[in-house]
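Hi U.,

Before I forget, here's the chain from the pilot set. I'm dumping it here mostly so it's searchable later in email.
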Amino acid sequence: MKTLWLLGGLGLGAGLMYMLDPEQGEQRRDMVRGQLAAYGRQTGDFLDDTTQTLNRQAQAFLARAQEPFRPQPGLGERLLTQAEDLGVPGGLFLLGCVGLGAGLIYMLEPYEGAQRRAQLRDKARTYWHKADAFLRSAVNNGTHHTDGRQLEDARVAQNA
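Structure:
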């Protein structure tokens, strides 16, 4: 931290010496003053252009809007409506939302949440490997069964 202060102080001192130089300091200060004035004009022009553009866009939007604004239902209201359309009672849906929220709090809690997520990840990997092994076994058994059936059908066809 002391090194940073030292470097900052050296830079500030060098800058002041550069700007306050008795021989060329006045020219340098005039140059900086001119650049600041030019930047100020550019910023003002940019703000004026932005204001005019936003005014035009707002007027065009309001001209197209034929009916007044009406409040739109929030996400929760839309989800509840969709759940009721599917035949799920509103109370059961809300209970499920509370359970989901509690589960997320349990998993994302800052103190023990990382350990819980690691345990869940390990369990998911274990179940995934078991499911993968089961599916591979089922596919192999099905393939062998099909191959055996084809050989048997070929033998029957030869004997007939």
